[in-house]
Fold this sequence. Notes:
CATH architecture: 2-Layer Sandwich
Radius of gyration: 20 Å
Structural class: alpha+beta
Number of domains: 1
Strand content: 25-35%
CATH topology: Ribosomal Protein S5, domain 2
Shape: elongated
Distance between the termini: 56 Å
Number of helices: 5
CATH class: Alpha Beta
Amino acid sequence: xxxxxxxxxxxxxxxxxxxxLKNTRIDGRGLLDYREITTEIGLLEKASGSALVSIGKTKVxxxxxxxxxxxxxxxxxxxxxxxxxxxxxxxxxxxxPGPPSEDAIELARVVDRGIRESKAVDLNKLCIxxxxxxxxxxxxxxxxxxxxxxxxxxxxxxxxxxxxAKTREYTVSKGGQLKYKKSTTHLPxxxxxxxxxVAKIGEKMVVDVSLEEEAVIDAQLTIAVGKDNxxxxxxxxxxxxxxxxxxxxxxxxxxxxxxxxxEKVLRGVEGWLEGKE
Length: 277
C-alpha cells in the first residue's frame, strides 16, 4: 500500500468512525439501515430461472440452469446444487480477468452454504434414478456492479432465481429412461434464507456496508437466516474479532433484518408464485 493510499484510508476511516459515534453514516443512513433494495425476476429467457437484485448501486444477476447428471457417491438419492461466481472488470476496477479469484470462490461458498444449510431446495425430490440420474442445479452469479455488500446481494439474487426456476415435468420408464412432458413445474423450494452481513467498524456494528465502509471494516459476520428465523449458517471474514456479546448482538440484528428484507422482497415478487401450485 502506498503512503498516499494509507493517508486517504486513515482519513476515510476517521470520517466514518466520527459519523458512527453519532449513530449515523457518511451517506446519511442509520447504523442498521439498508440501502434501497430492488428486484427483477425472470429476465433471462434461456435460463430455467433468473433474478436481478440491486442493493444501492450494487447489482448482481443470478441465472439458474437445470440439467441431468450423476449424484455424488455419498448422496446417491439427492440432486446436486452448485454455485459459481463471475467477477468481471466491468463491475469493479479491482476485479481482474482470468480464473476465479479467492474473493469469487469465497463469495460462491458463502452463498452456497446459505442455500444448502437452510435446505432451501429439497434435493431429494431432484433424484430421478437413485445412484444414476439426478437433476443438477447450477446457480451462476454475475456481478454487474460492485458498490459494497456483495454477500447479501448475491445470496438474495440466488434464492429469488431458484424460486423463479422451472423444470419440465417428466415420467421415468422401468428401464430408467426419461420422458419429458410439455408442462413445467417450479423447483421444490422449501425455505427462503436471507443472508445479512453484520460488519464491525471500531466498536460499532453496521449492516449493508458501502464500498467506502468496506475498505475500513475490522471484521464481519455473514449470517444466513431461514424463514422461521432459524440461523442456518455463519461465515466470519477479516482478521478483527467479535466478543461473545457482540456475536449475540449480530445474530439478533441478522434475525431482525432478514425478516424485514424477506417480507419486503416477497411483496415485490409475488408474480413468481403464479403457476407454482
